[in-house]
Amino acid sequence: MSLFGNQPPLSVDAVVEESESRSETIETRSTQSKKKSVVWGHFVDTGDKKVVCKHCGSALSKVKGSGTSHLPRHLLTSCKSIGDEERANMLTTQGDDWFDPSTFKFDPELTRGLLTLFFIDAELPFSVTESRFFEPAMRSLRPEYRSVGRQTVREDCVAVFKAGCRVALAELQELDSRVSFTSDIWTSSANLGYLCLTAHWIDKGFQFQKRIIAFKKIPYPHSGQAVADLVEKIWTDWKLDDKIFAITLDNSSVNDLAVKHLESRLSEKMLFGASHMHMRCSAHILNLIAQEGMKLIHTTLENIRELLRHIGSSGSRLQVLNSILDELNLSPKKGLALDCPTRWNSTLLMIKEALVLKGALKRYVNDQGSIKGPSLEEWNNAEDMATFLEPFLDAIKIFSSVRKPSSHTYIKEVWTIRRLLLLENHKDSAILRELAVRMQKKFDKYWENPNLILTLATIFDPRYKLIFLVFCFKKAYGEGSEANARLDYVRDWLKKYYEEYEKACMDQDSGVGSSQGERQIFKK
């Protein structure tokens, strides 16, 4: 069967596996030379026409009269137990020993499949294949190679994508836990809106997984109804409408309305009637809080931004600045990075760079006289702002983590920000005092009542547990009834979720139940 025929491959690994099944047939070698290849150090011959990978335990065929080229391909592309560093080391140190040119047979389907994976991994435009140098370069390696057009490459990439979707769908269907989602809307240069939906879950091996399951055009206008309809359709297509736990969205009225629609439609299938379905994006809230502070020094930011833009837009001006930097024993600049005004962290990085170059920039303004720079007071305000917002930058990096869970850090980071806003030393600076007041109002709007699910995640962190929450709540709400009421509320929901988990385990007849000691946790 053709690798890219009517039936697309089952998975990305299957692209390689299927091409391996059609690998070259070579002349039978003598018994004495059969296992001289170093690849046999990674496999065990079971003697029943099978060899077993020592790393992952996969069984591969061993047919008399065939070579071993499919074995190193397994190690270099398919074995999930070999890390990237070890795989790269294998390729550089043993690659020449694994492949024997005298037994090689060109397989156009294999080459096409691997080129497809190369296009995907390197994020290359499909038009690369139509470059006038692409096919000659490939044919210099193998004269039999015939290039395909960009439309064919696109179809091959889509086939691999659909195969990956089927694998993810199968894994999600076998999942015995719930799935969380994140979503955002992106607008193209043609003003077309697209909704991206990402699924997050813990697999059977207790490893954090995430997949972008949809990137679809959303009809105009981008109303709450339109967002809800599209998200619900995606969940239905993926057969996930009974596995939903929560969805994280930005803080907009459209998203609030979309969640209300979803809650009313799916409440019967969700835990506790979808009471905790909506998760407000902590990174976005942090962005709103910081942006509120940035408004206070708007004029300062504009002056710094304009000065950097003025210098960076001309090679001759940048050269003048570099000559000043050289005199001040500072490193020359290849360019000056401007911020994206809607991303406060990029604005903070721009301020920090400008402060490093402060002496040179002030001298440039004095020497040139053609542009107005920030005043002394504005430089001082920028310095105070950069110092004040540094902890916010650390928090945004944690909240925006994509390679590991960050929900268990929620209370710690929110507590750090709250403590920063209430520090007494802000009273020494008028700008910081006003800054703290403004940001505190925005903080209270979103985080006066901490998110319950993220609060529970913090308790599950063995470094914090419930005692850390008790400490934070009593510092924030006092030693009286308010703090105790909030703690009781969290304890009650912790008990409810635990009992739901216990019930699910018992329904699966997994033999997992709570001991008397475990039950006592929630009675204290």
From TrEMBL:
Coiled-coil stretches: none
Keywords: DNA-binding, Metal-binding, Transcription, Transcription regulation, Zinc, Zinc-finger
BED-type domain ranges (all copies): 34-86
SUPFAM superfamilies given in the database record: beta-beta-alpha zinc fingers, Ribonuclease H-like
Highest taxon above the source species: Eukaryota
InterPro entries: hAT-like_transposase_RNase-H, RNaseH-like_sf, Znf_BED, ZnF_BED_domain_contain, Znf_C2H2_sf
GO molecular function terms attached to this record: DNA binding; zinc ion binding
Region (Disordered): 1-30
Matching PANTHER family: OS08G0393150 PROTEIN, ZINC FINGER BED DOMAIN-CONTAINING PROTEIN 4
Protein name: Zinc finger BED domain-containing protein RICESLEEPER 1
Organism of derivation: Rhynchospora pubera
